[in-house]
Amino acid sequence: MLILAVESSCDETAVAVVRDGREALSDSIASQTDVHSLYGGVVPELASRRHAECIHALAEKAVREAGISAGGIDAVACTAAPGLIGSLLVGLGFAKAAAFGLGVPLIPVHHIRGHVAACYITFPALEPPFAALVASGGHSSLLEVRGYTQYRTLGATRDDAAGECFDKAARAAGLGYPGGPVFDRLSQNGDPSRYHMPSAKLSGNPLDMSFSGLKTHVVNLISNAAQRGEQLDLQGLAASFSQAVCRELVSRLLAAMRTTGLSKCVLAGGVAANSWLRKYAAAALSEASAADGVDYELFAPPIPLCGDNASMIGAQGYYEFLAGHTAGLSHNARASCPADDELC
Ligand code: KG4
Ligand code: ZN
Known about the structure:
By secondary structure, the chain is an alpha/beta fold.
């Protein structure tokens, strides 16, 4: 089955052709970082306009590069939630028109489920159940993936998303947008014990996370140093901060696996590209394997499939289709929506 997949939930417009949920025949992406870096973050109205300008050409390119004709498309999948509402509506409007024009089903896809599905393309033998840690600019969630379309939220951030912290810290330091890749680069030669970082104490669900205290701490460090005319060790700051964010994420991931008894886990979302997170998670799981006598396995997509792309939407779209989750042309986008919810 060939799915034309569309992603436009934030600041990347992407269209892909995906075969049977596991093979991306093409993935055309137009990043908008040039537009938003001027403002240090995503400007929703500008994002929608950019999506509208480039989506049609990207779709033509995706079909051409897949080596198929439009008539070979069996269904159109599209991110319908969560995300910036104007941006989502551009992609969904395009997907509806394509599905109507081609006379094929429309499959709304949850963006977070899509991030997880990036691993189906990377690891053809990977099947649920597994635990998933999805960390991006808008989300930080721990999920139990019981089946391809059966999700249960185990924990989530109470405040900021992990990627948002990298972005805000980089903005405060005048390092541009998005902050995650910049901090990752800077942190490579930094000393992670250079700056003390606070860790959040939360009551209630032990699998919930919090990043706002950490973010405020780093932003204050940066602005206080600027006021005093002091030079910060940016490499050390990036390393200390990255380690603190990863500690928060990985401790919850491990606790989630131990609580649920799941032995496989997936890292997904833009922050899954972080080199500290990948190393730290692998080391923690191998240590836990020895301690618990369980063969814990970690799956993380290659860097290009961690950030927003349309291949992941086509992969999840395939499984949503098999579950009968198709929608009519009146289907609406939703700015927020838990991954547990069925979109239709
Ligand atoms: O998944 P994504 O492309 O978009 C959303 O759904 O939000 O994630 C973007 C986020 C941004 O906050 C960006 O700074 C972060 O992912 N990011 C990283 C890295 N690469 C991207 N964070 C930490 N380390 C990285 N290497
Ligand atoms: Zn995303």
